[in-house]
Amino acid sequence: LKGKSDTNAVVLIDEIGRMEAYSQLFLDTVANVCASNASVLGVIVFDPEPWSLSFKNNPEIVLLEVDDV
After folding, report:
1. Going by C-beta distance under 8 Å and a sequence separation of 6 or more, which residues neighbour residue 42?
2. Which long-range contacts (CB under 8 A, 24 or more apart) does 17-26 make?
């Protein structure tokens, strides 16, 4: 991924969801980007899927819940 080593980069990940979680390569890439110097703005599944908890429980990640209310 081209921008992950750039401290000025913002990497957008439109969806980190159930279907995407079937790809270990995708999950590894997301983890790699999250551990990089780039800022990441992503959308992740709301439910506490086991594979999502490593992202959600990471103290470096800020979660904001968005709803229609």
Report:
1. 12, 13, 14, 16, 30
2. 17/43, 17/44, 17/45, 18/45, 18/49, 21/45, 21/49, 21/51, 21/52
Q: What are phi and psi of 38, to 5 degrees?
A: -80, 155
CA-CA distances (angstroms) from residue 5 to 1, 11, 27, 38, 53? 9, 11, 18, 6, 25
Closest to 43 (Cα-Cα) out of 11, 15, 9? 15
- Mean pLDDT per segment of 10 residues, for the chain of length 69 residues? 73 94 95 90 94 93 88
Which amino acid is present at 64? L
pTM: 0.81
